Amino acid sequence: MSKVHPSAIVDPKAELDSTVEVGPYSIIGPDVRIGAGTVVGPHVVIEGHTTIGRDNRIFQFASLGAAPQDKKWAGEPTRLDIGDRNTIREFCTFNLGTAQDAGVTRLGDDNWMSAYTHLAHDCQVGSNTIFSNNAQLAGHVHVGDWAILSGYCGVHQFCKIGAHAFIGMYTSLTQDVPPFVLVSGNPAEAHGVNIEGLKRRGFTREQINAIRAAYKHIYRSGLTLEEAKAKLAEEEAAAGDAAPQLRAMRDFLDTTTRGIVR
User: Fold this and answer.
1) Mean pLDDT calculated for residue range 149-159
2) How far apart are the first and last CA of the chain?
3) Neighbouring C-beta atoms of residue 184, cutoff 10 Å
4) Do 235 and 246 touch, CB atoms closer than 8 A?
5) Please, which contacts does 167-172 make with residues 24 or more away whose CB atoms are closer than 8 Å?
6) Residue 240 main-chain phi, psi, to 5 deg
7) Edge-to-edge strands of the sheet including 124-125?
8) Which of 13, 116, 237, 259 is 20 to 30 Å apart from 150, CA to CA?
9) C-beta separation of 143 from 123 below 8 A
């Protein structure tokens, strides 16, 4: 049997692995599934069609799987999917998806979600990200792996944040952020490459230098965005070990819909 505190309310239809722990006064709805080793703290509400993977730690007063804050939502059976080994701190609010998008809000693996962070409907967050206190995503936002969002930053709906990007504290983000780029301010401005983060993750000097050169093409050369993309394509062909990073930047620029912070 799962380790469920007597004061917790767990619907009989919910599917909890036998190793799941549920703290006092928490409420778990009928369409919830929770994987092995996950610990749900006290006063947590998990509802909706929500699936949570293995070895997550969910702290007190989190609200997961509540109805999306979208007037178009009409009760469709949309979902919240949470992967493995995530830390979800106090007062986090992750909402269900909507039928107007993929129908699912998704959080990957090994993420650190600090207190009061918000994932609105249909957000897609990768793995190994860090959200500092009060980082807030509006609906339909996509965040790549290893991105870092500092405290109190706010992200406009439909924005995309590339892998390894860094968003500074109190940033108001209304456009897309390419991979590896550091932005901050209100309105947001680009301030170079997230070099310290890349060093910590084992990027080689060759890769970092190639990313810095790509940044200069996009932000410092006076080239149009199309010209900068063509330049990245040229350099990718001879970039060796750095080719995947240049390709990631070029692919991101090809798919941006709101324009990039520039």
Assistant:
1) 98
2) 54
3) 19
4) yes
5) 167/135, 169/132
6) 60, -125
7) 15-16, 32-34, 49-52, 79-82, 104-107, 124-125, 142-143, 160-161
8) 259
9) yes
Mean pLDDT of all residues belonging to the chain: 96
Q: Name the nearest CA neighbour of 81 among 67, 96, 68.
A: 96
Question: What is the C-alpha to C-alpha distance for residues 129 and 118, in angstroms, rounded to an integer?
Answer: 14
Catalytic residues: 121-122, 139
pLDDT digits (tens, 9 = 90+) for 46-77: 999 999 999 999 999 999 999 999 999 999 99
Q: Render pLDDT for 174-193 as a digit per residue (tens, 0 to 9).
A: 999 999 999 999 999 999 99
- 137/114 Cα distance (integer angstroms): 13
CB count, 10 Å around CB of 92?
24
**What gap in Å lies between CA 164 and CA 197, rounded to an integer?**
7
Scan for tokens 């439909």, then name that residue. Answer: 158
Amino acid at 4: V
Please give the pLDDT value at position 1: 55
pLDDT tens-digit readout, 224-248: 999 999 999 998 888 889 999 999 9
Contacts of 222 (CB under 8 A, 6+ apart): none
Answer for the pair 44, 26: CB distance below 8 angstroms, yes or no: yes
181's enclosing H/E stretch is strand 181-184
Given a cut of 90, whether residue 171 has pLDDT beyond it is yes
Strands 189-193 and 181-184: antiparallel
Determine the average pLDDT of the residues in 113-131.
98
Q: Helix, strand or coil for residue 94?
A: strand
**Strands of the sheet with 93-95, listed across from one edge:** 9-10, 27-28, 45-46, 63-66, 93-95, 118-119, 136-137, 154-155, 172-173
Q: Extract the tokens encoding 166.
A: 């860094």
